[in-house]
Specification:
Chain A contains 12 helices and 10 strands. Chain A is α/β, with parallel strands linked by helices and 288 residues long. Chain A has a 6-stranded mixed β-sheet, with helices on both faces. Classes of the chains: A alpha/beta (288), B mainly alpha (268). The interface between A and B is large, with 41 and 31 residues.
């Protein structure tokens, strides 16, 4: 598989205000995202997750190194629109991304900016709304929808541009558990069925556990990178970075401290329960 | 209190009026206003009222929401009514005490003025209730299109208007939240003199403005992410096109003006 996003020796620091020195976020950051993959990016506050995401579609430009998207340099002004139509971005607060007063007209905003013919925009809008399961709300006013629904509208607004990749910057941080599930299911479906590359920045370990690959950032560097099982089994490392493993892994880890010897790669509740059942049967003296 | 503000609010629907081209509706509003100012008699006002009620019926907008939208106008209406009542000169005196004289002419005039304002606002509401802000701004943009040649930033203005309308409910909700938060910490918005009340608004306005700026910043980034680069090269999903019912509506508009003019020429 080819790389859709490749970050090479990225250096970035936020400019300082009034002669104060800027804040360096990245010094030598390297990351590659494979086309069609589902990557979760984890990290504590201030580790540079959002800053990294904003480099993926030219909202921020590198101070050093470069970011390549679909073979295009994000610093190339001539390719700006081409970069942005290929890498869509969904932000945390759904209210602040919705431009229009009617759902379908908001979804049409992106394609309209691309100068596509109106029949094609119509097709894309209907398609995008169907994919996020919001087609029956096409005529609704966005402010009357729930948070999860609004966020799905925001996602529809992005996929109507037919991007190759969607970057979601903590899309579930302001949502209730139901809204979170709606959004994550939608994103997973897009990745699975449409082959859209997904970069999900999140604070929720259970969301990250659903990804194919987890990248943990710490102080502008990649602290861990691998499949969810590989990353989450390094419980001590995660704790030292101020993060936690998913609850199932934490449970096994605590039990190990009490003398069990359980593998730390059970991410699903079902498989964790089975593991514990077997462990209690075999490892507890006198247990049955 | 804040929930009463319905100005600029759109009620989705599928009536003929909803489906009219926004330009037709804008032009019809102008026609309606002109006709309203040409109307001088009971008969012509009756015709206008019939037209208005008919339009409301067709649009299927609940009368309740229109009445609710009128509430903030009560002061203006009372003011206009009283002013016209006291300061219109006439011959048939109905009531006279101290320096105040109320004549029959004044009463009629005050009544007409109040009705005129009510009908004016009602008509405007009908436009904003049945037209989504985006198609409204589309219509305005299209009607003002020729001004682009004079370097008037038509697209930018309509975009700004569209976003402002979009954020009215969001900011109202936010104001409610801030007020509740301040109340929870003992703020008092109801009692005290007018100056006290005005002062009590400061702790609401400051966070509201800060959050509005933050929203604006995030929205601008989100718009950039969706490839927004101004009006050049932008296309529309919904192309504005006059259909049969638009021409029919123009016919109705012309007839309305004609009827009012004829009535006027007969002194009615």
């Amino acid at each position: 598989m080819s790389e859709i996003i490749s970050v090479e020796h990225l250096a970035y620091s936020y400019p300082g205000v009034d002669d104060t020195p800027g804040v360096a976020v990245f010094e030598d950051m390297n990351l590659k995202v494979e086309e069609g993959s589902f990557v979760a990016v984890l990290g504590g506050n201030g580790c540079g997750k959002s800053t990294l995401a904003k480099h993926f579609n030219s909202i921020l430009l590198p101070c050093g190194g470069r970011v390549m998207v679909c073979g295009m340099d994000t610093a190339d002004e001539e390719r700006l629109i081409a970069v942005r139509r290929n890498v869509g971005m969904v932000f945390q607060n759904p209210d602040n991304q919705i431009v229009a007063n009617v759902v379908e007209e908001d979804v049409a905003f992106g394609p309209e900016n691309l100068g596509i013919s109106s029949a094609e925009i119509r097709r894309r809008v209907d398609n995008a709304l169907r994919q996020v399961g919001m087609n029956e709300f096409a005529q609704h006013a966005p402010h009357l929808l729930s948070g999860g629904q609004k966020q799905r509208i925001a996602i529809a607004g992005i996929i109507a541009m037919e991007p190759k990749c969607i970057v979601l910057d903590e899309p579930t941080a302001m949502l209730d558990p139901r809204g979170r599930r709606e959004v994550i299911d939608t994103v997973m479906k897009l990745n699975r069925e449409k082959g859209i590359t997904v970069v999900l920045i999140t604070h929720h370990m259970d969301e990250a556990a659903k990804a194919q690959r987890v990248v943990v950032l710490h102080e502008g560097k990649v602290a861990a990178d691998g499949t969810p099982k590989e990353v989450f089994s390094q419980v001590e490392l995660l704790h030292s970075l101020g993060l936690a493993a998913p609850e199932t892994v934490e449970l096994c880890w605590e039990l190990n401290k009490q003398g069990f010897s359980l593998p730390l790669d059970r991410l699903g509740e079902e498989e964790c329960a089975r593991l514990l059942y077997d462990a209690v049967k075999t490892q507890c003296p006198g247990g049955n | 209190m804040l929930k009463d503000i319905t100005l600029g609010q759109y009620f989705p629907g599928n009536s003929v009026i909803h489906r009219l081209d926004p330009r037709t509706k804008l032009i019809m509003l102008v026609v309606y206003i002109v006709a309203l100012f040409l109307a001088v008699s009971w008969v012509s006002y009756g015709v206008m009222l019939l037209f208005l009620i008919g339009s409301i019926k067709i649009s299927a907008i609940p009368l309740k929401s229109i009445v609710r939208g009128m509430k903030p106008l009560v002061m203006i209406l009372v003011f206009t009514g009283v002013l016209n009542l006291f300061f219109t000169e006439g011959e048939t005196v109905l009531l006279e005490f101290w320096v105040i004289t109320i004549t029959k002419e004044a009463l009629v005039r005050a009544f007409f003025m109040v009705i005129r304002i009510l009908m004016l606002v009602c008509g405007t509401f009908l436009l904003t209730y049945t037209t989504s802000p985006i198609s409204l701004t589309d219509g305005l943009e299209s009607l003002m299109g020729p001004l682009k040649k004079l370097h008037v930033p038509v697209h930018e203005l309509s975009m700004m208007m569209c976003i402002a309308l979009r954020f009215i409910p969001t900011l109202i909700e936010e104001t409610d939240k801030i007020m509740s938060a301040q109340k929870a910490r003992g703020a008092d918005f109801e009692s005290g003199s007018l100056i006290d009340k005005a002062k009590a608004l400061i702790p609401i306005l400051v966070p509201l403005f800060i959050s509005a700026f933050r929203r604006a910043d995030e929205l601008a980034t989100a718009m950039e992410c969706r490839c927004y680069q101004g009006g050049d090269g932008r296309t529309k999903m919904k192309l504005l096109r006059y259909r049969l019912w638009d021409y029919e509506t123009f016919g109705v508009g012309a007839a309305l003006i004609a009827v009012v003019c004829v009535l006027r020429s007969f002194g009615l």
